[in-house]
Amino acid sequence: MTDGGAWRVVRADPSRLDEIHAIASVSFDAPWSPGAFEEEFRSGEAAIWVACDAKDRVHGYLVLRRALDEAHILSLATAPAERRRGVATALLVHALAVERASGARIAHLEVRAKNPEAIGFYARHGFREMGRRRRYYPDGEDAILLATALVAPRRAGGSR
């Protein structure tokens, strides 16, 4: 299943916490704690998606929060052995489709200014730079604010 890039994306439940945290731990210098993920599971505004292989093993996750008509992507990570095999794309495309279908008009996120691979990944999926958050990360690094529209803009002059 993984060779063809066909990942099964499902909404995670707390039973996936250990697998999700293991990926976060090897993906980030300052990963979320298990408690941070637990808080998102309890939140009524959050969704955690996981990409699984044919044996139901988690190879990536995406966390987002919904507020009104905005989807804020909080974290996206892929297991190192599965990077560049379509896991992150499967997660992002699926999560954005769900948000679009449920009425979200925009998706946004912050990414480290010194992470050109991530910035390029999001750009390939329609995200554009909207601004910069100075000293956003605990180590003082800036964040680039990226956003994409999830619905087509309305035409001037009304609908016909």
Keywords:
160 residues, 7-stranded mixed β-sheet
Question: Would you write up a description of this structure?
Answer:
The protein is an alpha+beta fold. The chain has one domain (8-149): 3-Layer(aba) Sandwich (Aminopeptidase), CATH 3.40.630.30. Helix content is 28%, strand content 31%. The protein has helices at residues 17-27, 34-42, 87-101, 116-124; strands at residues 8-11, 46-52, 58-67, 70-78, 106-112, 128-133, 143-149. The protein has a seven-stranded mixed β-sheet, with helices on both faces. β2 (46-52) and β3 (58-67) form a beta hairpin. It is globular. The chain starts with 7 loop residues before the first strand and ends in an 11-residue tail after the last strand. The model has no long low-confidence stretch (mean pLDDT 91).
Examine the coordinates and then state which fold CATH places here, giving the name of the CATH topology: Aminopeptidase
CATH class (first level) name: Alpha Beta
Q: Please work out how many helical segments DSSP would assign.
A: 4
Structure summary, number of beta strands = 7
Major sheet summary line: 7 strands, mixed
Proportion in helices: 25-40%
Q: What's the quick description here?
A:
The chain is 28% helix and 31% strand.
